[in-house]
Write a structure and sequence with these properties.
It is built from 17 helices and 19 strands. Strands 12, 13, 14, 15, 16, 17, 18 and 19 form an 8-stranded antiparallel β-sheet that branches. A 5-stranded antiparallel β-sheet has the order 5-6-10-8-9. Strand 5 and strand 6 form a beta hairpin. The longest helix is centred in the last third of the chain and has 22 residues. About 45% of the residues are buried.
């Protein structure tokens, strides 16, 4: 039974937003269950504000009632950072109604959009104005700009354009007290004190609620070519990356590495995608080259690179997409690895980063370690080699009870992988965030002084501990 204070808050929230946007009954699984369907929480209410002022009003009402808030975008996160706990006492604040493109400034190369804008819609708005918004990831059809900023999402073009942090010039944020920070300038230079924008980006809704952002735009490339290359080893993939930087320069806009077993899963569950070259090579690389001159210029440089790579032995075979449809299919194969893993059964996901130069040794040593420690384990290794980020995932042995495998081995597998990451001076979260899944692991792998500073910042900006408690830091 809800307490009187909670009932008073629900009444206040309905007065602020209207009955239709304060949800307390019916099927709320779209808000209360995480994307991987591993955790289900229960909210006191799901609220759907339609403006920044309504967000501020909701925060003030919750602060007065001492009720914590969980901000949520598209609910596509992978670390259980955007759903309520199971107490039924938290307010889930969905930003999906705040989905307007507020402005595009062509001369300043910026776009200002609300936090609930689906990433794909931001990309399309930019394209319709003749520009490129380069953030691209598998969930772009459902994830939102606010969630991308809250987790500092990476994606497939970080090697050229950087993470979401590097794409953001200004933010509008509602604080834990319900005040609004208006900092939506499109300035590339503003040296007037602490950079609060960067403090909010990647904070996963624990320091403030991002309601809008001003993002960088880029000229649309004259040509974009995609190649799929078979490589004999991870070391050869790293060597190919070096050649690509040397001969394509800033034209390298994507560099993805995929292990043979990862591609085998795609071939098994999505045979219609026709995965090329995977059967006879340990790894494949998906390489994208963007060119500001012409397609002919891009193709000449691309083919020259691949000729050098074949002569050098770091590529054993390669195909270049002849048209946009073929390129999209190659990228679809890459993005289908996660879905194919899900079809294969429950698995243990890792989103790690290590220095690119250390990736071959990390993979060799960690593969051997896991294979020795857990009989029959299957390793799904793929990711953004161009920026040192691997999705180093562990699939249960074939034919075993996956629930039992997770119960018996997940903590051990995580510890082995994270200890290996630490040994190579890496990070246990490259782009997915910390959420609640990694919050207890973080103290073992984060510099203690840095962690203490993070905790002090959290307490200073959110002294009541109302914004997404139990995530990132405790």
């Amino acid at each position: 039974m809800r307490q009187p204070a909670s009932l008073d808050l629900l009444i206040a929230l309905r007065e602020l937003l209207g009955e239709a946007h304060v949800l307390t009954s019916g099927d709320l699984s779209a808000y209360e269950q995480d994307w991987r369907k591993r955790t289900r929480g229960q909210a006191l209410a799901v609220v759907r504000p339609g403006s920044t002022q309504q967000v501020a009003d909701v925060v003030k009402a919750c602060a007065q009632a001492n009720v914590s808030i969980v901000p949520q975008g598209g609910n596509t996160g992978l670390v259980v950072g955007g759903i309520p706990d199971n107490t039924g006492a938290q307010v889930l604040l969905s930003l999906q109604r705040m989905n307007a493109i507020r402005a595009i400034d062509a001369d300043n190369l910026t776009l200002t959009a609300e936090a609930g804008c689906v990433l794909q819609n931001v990309q399309q708005a930019a394209e319709q104005s003749g520009f490129l918004f380069p953030l691209s990831l598998g969930a772009e059809g459902s994830c939102t700009l606010g969630g991308n900023l809250a987790t500092n999402a990476g994606g497939t073009q970080v090697v050229r354009y950087g993470n979401t942090r590097e794409l953001c010039l200004g933010l509008e944020v509602v604080t834990a007290q319900g005040d609004v920070m208006h900092s939506l300038s499109g300035l590339r230079k503003d040296n007037t004190g602490y950079d609060l924008r960067h403090l909010m980006i990647g904070s996963e809704g624990t320091l403030g609620i991002i309601t809008a952002a001003t993002m960088k735009l880029y000229p649309m490339p004259a040509a974009r070519l995609t190649a799929w290359a078979a490589v004999p080893s991870v070391a050869h993939a790293v060597k190919l990356l070096g050649l690509a930087h040397q001969h394509l320069g800033a034209g390298v806009t994507g560099f993805e590495m995929m292990g043979q077993f990862a591609l085998r899963l795609v071939d098994k569950h999505y045979p219609q995608l026709r995965v090329p070259l995977w059967q006879d090579t340990p790894y494949c690389v998906l390489l994208e080259n963007s060119d500001s001159e012409s397609e002919a210029h891009a193709r000449q440089r691309f083919e020259h690179l691949l000729e050098l790579a074949l002569e050098d032995g770091c590529v054993s075979d390669a195909v270049v997409a002849e048209n946009l449809s073929q390129a999209r299919n190659l990228w679809h194969i890459r993005e289908s690895i996660t879905l194919a893993q899900a079809e294969e059964g429950l698995n243990i996901k890792h989103d790690i980063s290590v220095p690119i130069s250390s990736i071959p040794r990390f993979v060799e040593e960690t593969d051997a370690l896991l294979t020795r420690e857990i009989s029959g384990v299957r390793l799904v290794n793929f990711g953004h080699l161009g920026d040192g980020n691997l999705h180093y995932n562990v699939q249960a042995p074939e034919g075993c009870d996956t629930q039992a495998f997770l119960r018996d081995h997940e903590d051990r597998v995580n510890a082995l992988v994270y200890q290996s990451v630490k040994r190579f001076k890496g990070s246990i979260s490259a782009e997915h965030g910390v959420g609640s899944m990694k919050v207890d692991s973080l103290p073992h792998y984060k510099d203690p002084v840095a962690l203490a500073l993070m905790q002090r910042i959290k307490h200073a900006l959110d002294p009541q501990g109302l914004l997404n408690p139990g995530r990132v830091v405790r």
